[in-house]
Amino acid sequence: LMLNFLLAIVVEGYMRVREDIEKNESEREFTQDVVLTIYAWFKGKIQRWPDKREVAYRLRHCVASGRITPAHIWLQGFPCVQSSKMFAHYFAMEEICADP
């Protein structure tokens, strides 16, 4: 009886994780990932965005709070505030970015 109870808990946990994985939309096909990576690279070159890893590294070390403004991003090497806003929009950073 206890073994059945324990097994039911494990199976229920497994089913929840399986449902969460099926809902996850971040998984794409290889060709779609390649096309989107190339598109992001070209968009960054056209907008003159600095390397996103460098921006993330600098922001991680310059902002202690959870809110980052477009001005914080602009100070990381973007040509203008509008370009930093486009970077934040493209990389889905709107939830952590707020206008000052």
Write structural notes for this entry.
With 100 residues, this protein is mainly α. The protein contains five helices and no strands. The chain has helices at 2-23, 30-47, 52-62, 70-74, 81-90. It is elongated and about 65 Å long. 8% of the residues are buried. The model is unreliable at 94-100 (pLDDT under 50).
Task: Please tag this protein with its features.
mainly alpha, 100 residues, elongated
Which helices and strands, and how do they pair?
Layout: H1 2-23, H2 30-47, H3 52-62, H4 70-74, H5 81-90
Q: State the major sheet.
A: none
Poorly predicted sequence stretches spanning 5 or more consecutive residues? 94-100
Which shape, going by the Cα principal axes?
A: elongated
Computed Rg? 20 Å
Give the rounded overall mean pLDDT.
75
Distance from first to last alpha carbon? 60 Å
Beta-strand percentage? Answer: under 5%
SSE run: HHHHH
Instruction: Give the total of beta strands.
Output: 0
How large is the count of helical segments? 5
- Give the helix/strand class: mainly alpha
Percent in helix? 55-70%
